[in-house]
Amino acid sequence: MMSMAICRVRAALLSLSNHKSSLISSSSSSSSSSSSIRSFSSSQFESVGFIGLGNMGSRMVTNLVKAGYNVTVHDINCNAMKKFSDMGVPTKETPFEVAEASDVVITMLPSSSHVFDVFTGPKGLLQGGNLLRPWLLIDSSTIDPQTSRKLSVTVSKCNLKGKKDNLVIPVMLDAPVSGGVLAAEAGTLTFMVGGSEEAFLAAKPLFLSMGKNTIYCGKAGNGSAAKICNNLAMAISMLGVSEALALGQSLGISASTLTKVFNSSSARCWSSDSYNPVPGVMEGAPSSRNYDGGFASKLMAKDLNLAAESAKDIGKKCPLTSHALEMLVLTSCLLKKIN
């Protein structure tokens, strides 16, 4: 089923790419295949829908608007929508209404269940049955690869409303991000993308309006797989850096001095040089803002649980994942009691 869906998407996109390539070659025989892909993408991204206006999504939308895209937004939080409405950005009451107004729809949501509901639930993106207005659906949420692949197959069974060049079926990309709130605000996110490579190339200018790196990871679901593996490595390194800094301070070394050692030695990592967990060591890091705007422990626990469940599904043992998850769940519970 998955292979048939992939073939169907690839055939449609290749047809579209070839059609546009022939138009370009008549005016410029020296154009490359990548530039022909970009040429059709610009006209297919006139209206961008965005669903999910949380810490990450709101900042991504702001950068899309700055880049000149016509953006329409939706969120279940009315206050989040009002912020953009006051900026002149159109808002819609349901995901389906966003889809009806958009060529491309991006979702940035908390969990797999939220994504599945926005796509397939009442008034969801796919409410119109097998007819869709947007030709491209991009999910930037951090979810399990299995859900990404199921939704990709479901989307590939739909048809497009109206003719979009030679493209007759919509396409889905799983494109989670790395970099956190700071990178979302600065427009320096990294996108890890799974799905059709032709669609990835077409969407690259859109990604680069919100980030600075785009990495094609392969088939549908591979972007989500890359993301949970990235967050697994980051969570374990953050726990290690935090424990080492705590030990160092107990032994009489200041956190700032020990951080300089780490960042000049083999312990250097993102958790030490960009997201240092000790208050006052790194200006701009969440730890120096009373942890405001940081990545919540409960969300990291959620991501580690995705990794643990994915490992379980394929019979892979990941002991460090289990230990890290246990520590983060405990931390989340303690923070909940304190607050």
UniProtKB/TrEMBL annotation:
Where is the catalytic site?
K227
3-hydroxyisobutyrate dehydrogenase-like NAD-binding domain residues: 221-328
Its EC number(s):
1.1.1.31
Q: Which PROSITE patterns match?
A: 3_HYDROXYISOBUT_DH (PS00895)
Instruction: Write out the GO MF terms.
Output: 3-hydroxyisobutyrate dehydrogenase activity; NAD binding; NADP binding
Q: Does the keyword Mitochondrion apply?
A: yes
Q: What's the name of the protein?
A: 3-hydroxyisobutyrate dehydrogenase
Origin species, per record, is Quercus rubra (Northern red oak)
